[in-house]
Write the structure tokens for this entry.
Amino acid sequence: MLHNRPIVIIIDDDSHDLNLFTDAIEYLNHPTDIILIESTDVIDLLRGLPTIPLIILSPISVSTTRKALLTDQNESFKYIPHVFYSASSDHIILKEISENTDGFFHRPENAEELAALLSTIINYWSNALTPLTVNYQSQVTQ
């Protein structure tokens, strides 16, 4: 079930990156619940949420989390948009993650720039039609 206040999950196992995201979130003026979490806890978190997240963001280093979501028994997990980020913009990285990803962004090192990027990503996915949002909209109109 989706709700009006979207949930964004940011996965990262690096404390420096989590701190950077924490700082960036402070700059955001967005009606979004953002959850920062380590990769080992994602499946349990998703199973415990009352709603399906709008999007999941994670570094390429935890791409195994995406594979776990695709094979989980909860079918809706595979339709959650999953966007990867990296401090590198190397094109070789893009080849490694080209399957089963919904996007890739270069992660800025500055919290203000990261906040602006997060805002853009959240706004995009808030307006995008995905299998989850289309299914939700059809349930609401019935």
User: Anything to note?
Assistant: The CA atoms of residues 24 and 112 lie 6 Å apart.
